[in-house]
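One-letter codes give the sequence; the fold follows as tokens. An example follows:
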Amino acid sequence: MLSQKLIILLLFLPGLLAGQDGLFTNFDEASFYHNPALTGFIPGDATTRLQFRGREQWRSFLGNGAYRTMTAGIERRFCGADDGDYFAFGSYAMADWQGDPSLRRIDFFGTAAYTKDFSSRFQTRLLSGGVEAGYLQYNLEQGNLTFDDQFDDPDLPDELLAFQNLLVFDYGIGVFLTQFEKGKNGYGFSLGVSAKHLGQPELRFIDNPATDNQTSVKLPTRWTFHAGGNLPTPALGNTTLSVLGVASFQGPHNQFLGRALLNLERTKTGDGRYLSLGAAYRVNAGVNGPGGDAVILVGQWNGPGYRFSANYDINVSRLRSATNSVGALELSFFAFFGKSDCIRCPRW
């Protein structure tokens, strides 16, 4: 049957794959997935947000083994004791498929945040702290694996794995600060940091004390630092410019993204509808050193009570010769409900 070294190799590689979280290009469209302090940070004065998001990457290269990630979530906020303060609670589920045979991960998390208002006469300033806790489930499709002796005799049974399904507890924290002028076209900025997988849960598919140090891997803590800003552009009328920078560090997998977005607003019509267009660039810095990963085209349509966004990643990494520069498509949809007079949040 399959030699011990080959078993270790096959089962350790999925562990390395599991060492990275599912990727989303639009950071602000996956806000409380990245930072629990952003739970309840809903544009305008709505109290509830529903969100749905899907991404598929490298189908031209991997076919049915393309990386696929989907999330769904809901969050709601409630007025605090002081005007401008609020509590927020949310929950989300994420499903991520990697490769063929598939290594599947499903996240079930609850989040909670408290936002304190430190506003002055001319500026709104909000400081948020958040926590998250939940479970990660990993599933390995063993039935689609082929072991070495089965190439000579396909009738031989599969190797027995101790675990095909793993369920582990996990938790994380985050903080977020934002400040913006009290005015329709005023400037604003935000800063945040989060730490996911603080418990560093252990992932393994075989149970052998003699080889546990080779066949198990701990999911590294993921540190994310993000900053953004909103700038008026008087020369372009009601148009504003939003900029965003994100840096994530998870074990040897480091990633940096910068984005600029023009918000082509039609405030004179008063209908709340406007188009946002922009571009981003992502750099990966992993075990092979830093290198460009993708040029990203971004579009958003904002309406009263909803928002739809789409972005396309053009692959510029060393893999582009195999993918023909085809990258990933990501789609997001949001719906906003309710209204509260005690909440102050910017639209950007």
